[in-house]
Amino acid sequence: MSSIEPFRFLHTGDLHLDSPVTGLTAEAPLEVLRVLRNATTDAWRGVVRTALSERVDFVVVAGDVFEVASPTLLGQTRFRDGLAALADAGIRSFVVHGNHDPLDGRSWAPSLVFPAAVHRFGPGPDESVPVLRDGREIARIHGRSYPRAAVTENYAAGFRADPDAPFSIGLLHTNVGDRPGHANYAPCSVEDLRASGMGYWALGHIHQPGQVLADPPAFYCGIPQGRDPGELGARGCYVVEVDAAGRVTPRFVATDLVRWQPLEVSIADLADDEALGRGCREAIGVAADGADGRSLIIRLRIRGRGAMHAHLARPGYGEDLRQLLNEEGVDAGFAWVESVADATRPDVDLDLRRETPDFVGDFLRTAAAARRSAHTTDPEEHERWTALLRAAVAPVFDESQKGRRYLRESRPGDAELSGELLDDAEALGIDLLLAAEEER
Amino acid sequence: MRIERIELDGFGRFHDAAWPLEDGMTVLVGANEAGKTTLLNGLRALIFGFEPTRDGRTWYPAFAGGRRGGRLVLRTAGDERWTIERHGDKGGAGSLAVRAPNGNQGGQETLDRLMRGADRDLFNNIFAFGLGELQTLASLNADGVRGRIYGAGSGLGGTSAVDLERRLRQQLDATFLPRGSQKPLNALLARIDDLRREIADLARQPEEHEAAHQEREGLRTRVEALRTDIRARRELAARYGRLRAAGPIAAELTVLQAELDAGDAALDAVPEDVVAVLDRRLGELAEARATLAALDEQVAEARASREDLAIDERLLGMAGEVDAVVEERVTRAAATAQRHDLDAAEARSAVAVAEQLARAGGWTEERLLALDDSIPALEATRAHERDLHSTRTAVVEAEQRRRSAADELELREREGGLESEADDAGLEERTDALRRLDAIRIRIAAAEAVAAGGGPTVRLSPSVATVAAVGFAVLGAVAGSLVSAPLSGLFVGALAGGLVVLLTRGTGADGSDLAGFHVERRALLGVLGLDPHASDAEIQAEREALAGVRARRQVAQELHSSLEARRVEVERRTRDAAAAEARSAEAGAAWSAWLEQHGLPEALTPDAARQLLAAAGVARRAALERDGHRIRLEELASADVAYDARADGLLAAMGTVSPADSSHRDALVVGLGTALDVARESRRRAQELDATIARLSVRRVPAVNDVTEREAAVTAHLVAQGCADPDDLRRRAAEAALRRELQGRARELRARMAGIAGSPDAIGALLAESASTDPDQLEADRAEADEDLERLESEDREVLNRIGALDARIAQLEATEELGTRRQELAVLEGQAAAMAREWAVRALALRLLEETRSRYERERQPDVVRAAEQHLERITGGRYSRIVALPGDASVRVETEGGESRITDELSRGTAEQLYLALRFGLIEEFARHAEPLPVVMDDILVNFDSDRAARAAAAIRDLAARHQVLYFTCHPWTAELLDPAGGRTLTLD
To answer: Which residues of A touch B208 (CB under 8 A)?
Structure first.
């Protein structure tokens, strides 16, 4: 390694520009929709602003700028405009393609002209580009784009740093260590990363930002804007400092505009509607205070046992509560309650009722039998309950053509039918039965 | 629960009908069409509402009259009394009022609770059935019927599992229907479908963008080629144009040049403005001459006017005196009018003085004017007036009071004179005698009573004695009232009574006492002047006379006291009147003194004095005014005399004899004033004209010099151009102008040639090329080149337009948010649909769990019902059938005989099947009653298909049922009534 001039660069990726924010279960106000609609592109603008304000020497983009399944020209234009703004400031950009924007896909409009200061890596191995400052090389960037969406080849294993380069950066879209819940594309191991000789690995693919490896430093930059209820917490990019000794100091900079915020409120000590509303507002207030000025989409889960369960069990109560919590309106820096889930249970000893020889006991025993059927060794019982539960939900998910087509993703599997859904169904049934019992 | 009373206001044939019902069995017997079924349906209607219209006709209209519907009185096992009242003209619930024992009123929900969840189906099929319901198994197997029977034991209150299932089913259907389109989830899925199609269309935008981009690149290349061609064509056309334009110009230029060469070159030296300069100088000369002539004319006019003026210097010499006299004349004329006014005012003042003297009654002016009419004097008259008035009023009032007192005294004295002195000698002694006589009378009576009783002492019981004492007291009071006062009577009576009491206490009396009493009585009568044997009546008369004397004596005493008081009053009033009179006389004397002091007549009243003083004031002011006017009039007369003398002097100085008549004199004075004004104006005008003539003479000198200079300038200009006179100069100037015009045209043509050729240097070459070109060929080539150019330019425009359109479209595609917006909308909708579907799934699973639970519950409960039904069937069939096999969900039921023979319902006779169903109903009724309050059971002639043995056994079973439930049995068969109610005490007849 030759001598190093200290430099600074920005590591981003997984922009998924102009792709929708998913997972909303309620009709959102226009202001919220507007923010969500532009969230990914506005986050990209935030990345560009960060690069400009931090006066970085260059920017690396670790794939998945778009989604091949849903490309839009607007997103590409915004991306190009951002790169042009960087180029105008003398900042070069280096881009690799990932599984969502492979080279063979439709995601890149051929006619879209990128500034000369942008380098897009091709699909071949051994491609590297020197980064010059005042005519002297300060770093060398190695990168490889996906030629197609499903790349199963270990690209990282082919990365080798040039000993003559002052500092080498590996830029790759990859699943290191076969992380569950993510497509295992360009799979590699931390050993592959270690063996490469890179001074820093700028990785993309996993949307949660964070360190993969300490030596050499390998980081997933994460997505600049969380797009669904599963992508919680702050999202952004890394500004990476490299000093004269080659020491790397990545610093996370949040660029997201809106964050998903799950909240839980227990009804255990709440006496009435007012107390519940107050408890929810307090929880929301605390979340908003800790949101770093970001807007929040709040998923409120009311849990616990208590007198308020009967209120929450009433049809429409949750929606009324949600609207009540949102009644102050939505403006900049909003905290909008997207859903109110009732996970409360009646204040009765269900175990005791399950042993009671009456109709409610029968009902609880029936539900328990259905729950057990998932694990029973009696194939006939298992088959009977599986068919019965499937048949119960079939009208929506199977028998309706549109349901088959558009509810495929949310169609409950057998485990969910005899698990979470069954629990909720049991709670609903118990609510009805106890209410009827009350009338006696 | 039992029905205490059914009332039908109007229902079918019934109007204002009522049936009070007892607990246990009631048999209602009626012939066909007597109304049994109507009553059954009336009962159903009151509980569950009216059936809908059938075949376009109202179900049981109130054709007998009344308001359709009625009232039902129920009594619960807890002895609570509920009232259900329902009316309605059509099908449905109608108007329902359910009144609770505490007076609260409820509706359908209350009724449902009261019926413990038994709905119409359950009631009609199990609790109130006729032959029709009895003949099918379906009516027993209906989900609602079973669910409610078993549900009664589920501990779910008025709600059964069937209700919960129905509620869940309704909620599911309200969200989604497999073949629906309007429900929220259906609508959401449909919207997703539409949106996805829309997005698929929008997703083609990148392809369109690429195509537009490619097309635009091709067009830009084409534009470059077109521009090259257009440039070449334009250069060729320009060359043809130059040649075409140069020919005629060259020809004209040649002719012009020849003409100029032949002309007088000296004309070039003639200035362009030579004529203008001449005209300007001639104009200036003419102007100077006109100015001089005008000055001469003005001087002549002024001199002529000066000579015509004549000035009266003598008059002007007397101007000061004339002005003074004229002014004094005006003053005198004004004084004449003033004098008339003063004369009139003086006369009015004199008359006013005379009037006041007359008012004073012929006083002299001096005496009247000497009176003091000051404000203190007037106030003094008012003060005296008040004194006089008040003292006089006091005299009159005192006299009135004195007279009134004297009249009162006189009246009382007259009344007193009528009273004779009352004879009151021995009055006190006689009164005492009467009192003692009363006591003696009582003692005598007591003594006589003792004597009449044979001697022994009569003892009255103390209570009798007390009554007697009270009686005496009352009598005494009555008697006393006649004498003096009731109290004294009461005292006397009480005394007598007390005496009686004393007597009765055993003091006793004997005959010697009685004689003593009589002696004393006679003595007392003597005191009164009565006969010793006078009767009680005579004594009473004496008592009354004595009372009259006492009364008159009291009146006489009161009158005497009154007279004394009146006399003192009269004396006091007389003294007061004399004092008032003295004060009045003092006031009169003071007034008279004041009059004398102020020189006024003695007899004057204060008011008359004030009038006289007022007259004096008025007369004084009038006299002052009158004297003032007289002095002013004398001053005016003196001024008139002075004026006349001055006017006469002036007229004499002017040589005029002063006339005696003052008006004539005034006219002459006025004439002098007017003549003086004319003389002054003439002198001012003469001075003005002299000044004008002097000023004009000064101005004439430079005007003469100016004319001389202008004449010299014109001559110099003509000489400079070598001309003798102005006309000669004009001719030469015209020739020079024509030559300049030809030279200008030649320059213009040369400039145009230079423009065509590109530069002045190229003119020669252009002229040469033009000379060698065939004009016709040139024209043909030029037309062809123009045509090519037009075509190329047109294509260029089209291509540029297309590029512009592509630019706009590409920019639009790159900036459009529609696709992203639609995708975001889709994401939101899919999220909502997923949430809604999940909620739906939870409800569906809850429903399935409930159904499973209920099915299991019923299975477990059914054996009890079937066992009970088996006992009933065995009893009704006389042991023929002893077992029932009924599997849940099965459409039929099997029965087995003792011998194991098994038959399904289809294989049974109609009667046996009905007995089976009746037995099952009894089982279900008992199962329901096990968990809920027993409901009344109503049966409508269900035994008609039973043979006599089984009918009798069934009737016995019904009678047993009636021990636990209220049973109403409708029949048209008297024998059935006898079976059910052998004693006949529970049978009612419908007619």
So the answer is: none
